[in-house]
Amino acid sequence: QVLLVESGGGLVQPGGSLRLSCAASRSISTYDMSWYRQAPGKQREFVASITYTSSTNYADSVKGRFTISRETAKNTVYLQMNSLKPEDTAVYYCSQPLTASWGQGTQVTVSS
């Protein structure tokens, strides 16, 4: 497994933006990476993924508002979140599916 550490969460007003980061303890150059989220009382759900060739995929609920990217030289994956809504409030987790690795999560709260 790989150690994944998320950062960048916080409290933001509706319509605002945040950028989450996921730093890996070793090279991610040949691995697909994903972001998931879990809201209180709900199951964890897929948010976005990026392949090792940088192809991306998004949940319908975030398409057009969120952007996933990777910086292989820094072993880091990002999630740029724009036009945030209260329903985006959740703990956001980074994942490396092939190794079944998960980070500890970072809280995102969207509220006025």
Provide key terms for this protein:
112 residues; 0% helix; 11 strands; single chain; globular; 49% strand
**Rough shape?**
globular
Roughly how many Å apart are the termini?
Answer: 39 Å
Report the structural category.
Answer: mainly beta
Number of helices: 0
Rounded average pLDDT:
97
Number of extended strands: 11
Largest beta-sheet details: 7 strands, mixed
Q: Write down the secondary-structure element order.
A: EEEEEEEEEEE
Strand-residue proportion: over 45%
* Cα Rg: 13 Å
List low-pLDDT spans.
Answer: none
Question: What is the share of helical residues?
Answer: under 10%
What does this structure look like?
The structure is a single chain. By secondary structure, this protein is mainly beta. Helix content is 0%, strand content 49%. The protein is built from no helices and eleven strands. It has strands spanning 4-7, 10-12, 18-24, 33-38, 45-50, 56-58, 66-71, 76-81, 90-96, 101-102, 106-110. Strands 2, 4, 5, 6, 9, 10 and 11 form a seven-stranded mixed sheet that branches. A four-stranded antiparallel sheet has the order 1-3-8-7, with no helix packed on it. A hairpin with a 5-residue loop joins strand 5 and strand 6 (56-58). The chain is globular.
